[in-house]
Amino acid sequence: MAIAVTIRYGTKTDVPGMLALVKELATYERAPQEVTNTIEMMEQDGFGNQPVFFSRIAESNGEMVGIAIFYIAYSTWKGKCVYLEDIIVTEKLRGSGIGKLLFNEVGKFAKEQEAQQLRWHVLEWNEPAITFYKKYNTSFDTEWTTCKLMKEQIETLF
Asked: Which secondary structure element, helix H or strand E, spans residue 69, and what is its range?
């Protein structure tokens, strides 16, 4: 089923819809309780005085149906990289090509930025996403383990 989709830059007014899609993804990924982000945080972080992320919005018939959130990162070994935090397509439209449109937009951004890498994570059990990324001849890195300190740990330790 072909649907008409437009990809555009995200704006501050998109944040409530963006956060709704984030929560939808968290439910799909079996971790809805993990979303602690808020509309206010996303507005500040994406559209405040010092934005830390970029976004692209997929729309169909005036409705937000997908998003891509990404940012510029730096590798001491490679140089400038673009990190794709998430591509989220509303569940009812997954498999319709919207993810490809969003991924291509992030790829174009990486190319414009002359990035040395485009990086992202994918859950090891998320076969539909893994299959999608394999179409791009993606390198899957099995050598690195993701590490993190949560806000509470940061506050306690430092």
From this structure: strand 63-75
**Over its length of 158 residues, how does the chain's per-residue pLDDT go in tens digits?**
578 999 999 999 999 999 999 999 999 888 999 999 999 999 999 999 999 999 999 999 999 999 999 999 999 999 999 999 999 999 999 989 999 999 999 999 999 999 999 999 998 888 989 999 999 999 999 888 889 898 889 999 99
Contact between 83 and 71 (Cβ < 8 Å): yes
Domains and CATH numbers, the chain: 6-157 (3.40.630.30)
The DSSP code for 140 is P
The active-site residue, picked from 9, 28, 74, 133, is 133
- The beta-carbon contacts of 2-5 under 8 Å, at least 24 apart in sequence, are 2/96, 3/60, 3/93, 3/96, 4/60, 4/61, 5/58, 5/59, 5/60, 5/65, 5/66, 5/97, 5/98, 5/101
Query: Active-site residue 28, yes or no?
Result: no
Q: What is the DSSP letter of 37?
A: -
Task: Indicate the burial class of 52 (C-beta count within 10 angstroms; 0-12, 13-18, 19 or more).
Answer: exposed
